[in-house]
Amino acid sequence: MSRLEEKIFQEYMSFFEKAERERRWNVFEDIPWDRVNKEASEELALCAETFCSVEMYLPDYVSNGINLVRSYFGQAWFQANWAYEESKHSLTLMQYLLRSGKRTEEQLTDLQHQIFAKKWDLPFHTPRQMTFYGCVQEMATFVIYVKHRERAATEGDECLRAIYDYIARDEIAHCRFYQSVIKVLLEEDRQGTLADMAHVFANFEMPGVGIVPDYDSRILKMREAGVDRNVFIQKVYMPILKYLGVGRHEMLAAQRAALDLRRGGERRRDTSIEGLAIAPNLNDAAPQALSA
Ligand SMILES: [Fe+2]
Ligand SMILES: [Fe+2]
């Protein structure tokens, strides 16, 4: 094992130890299923259904993700553990939709067929870029679930509030692991890692875009429930840079370099804010996951 792999393995071991000790939860025992509010709004159910749909591409996230890092012990074992945790997210949300009476078995079966008719492909193709993609995506997903946790509470749905709470804790833990790996990678090769970060920021899209059935109309209906550009900058972009110890100017310089590299190539379809480019579909994004 190289020194780099050794460090990443150590990060995985501390992540896993903490997960086993503090973060395990049980779909059957820990969710207050009797506290579902059947009178809660359809919009609340629609949001839960959309998040559930994004989480359902798990087979694609897992197979693509683990194959990319199969020779890196810490990263590959993380993917395996990650897959177990993520598998509970869609399962629990599906149970919620059924037990709340918001959806029938038939409706969910129909949705599943539509979901599996499409396939999620890797948005980036190197382990380092995918690690950073995972970091951004998990943080954005965390922000969305926290927002919806409050919303479920406002609608008096204690069951859904508890579900979002457990899921949000998982998502932020996933984000922390990816962040710790990126920190190690920055120590190893700062310029190369910054260039990859710039590339991922500039091309970032949530995983449901283009594959979840009726994604655009769902997003429209969820409008105020999503994450817009400002929220993304304040709650996702800035906190990640701060945690990694990367200055704003340093990041902007890397972004400019990445843009220069791309000039002459394909015309950019997204727009920039002070050098930060966010794909348009990020607005009001639904969560998750690849490295969901
Ligand atoms: Fe998830
Ligand atoms: Fe996650």
From TrEMBL:
InterPro entries assigned to the protein according to its UniProt record, in alphabetical order: Fatty_acid_desaturase-2, Ferritin-like_SF, RNR-like
Keyword Lipid biosynthesis tagged: yes
Domain of life of the organism encoding this protein: Bacteria
Cross-referenced Pfam families: FA_desaturase_2
Molecular function per GO: metal ion binding; stearoyl-[ACP] desaturase activity
BP terms from Gene Ontology: fatty acid biosynthetic process
Cofactors named for this entry: Fe(2+)
Annotated keywords: Fatty acid biosynthesis, Fatty acid metabolism, Iron, Lipid biosynthesis, Lipid metabolism, Metal-binding, Oxidoreductase
Family classification: Belongs to the fatty acid desaturase type 2 family.
UniProt xrefs under PANTHER family: ACYL- ACYL-CARRIER-PROTEIN DESATURASE-RELATED (PTHR31155), STEAROYL-[ACYL-CARRIER-PROTEIN] 9-DESATURASE 7, CHLOROPLASTIC (PTHR31155:SF9)
Complex and partners: Homodimer.
Protein's name in the database: Acyl-ACP desaturase
Source organism of this protein record: Sorangium cellulosum (Polyangium cellulosum)
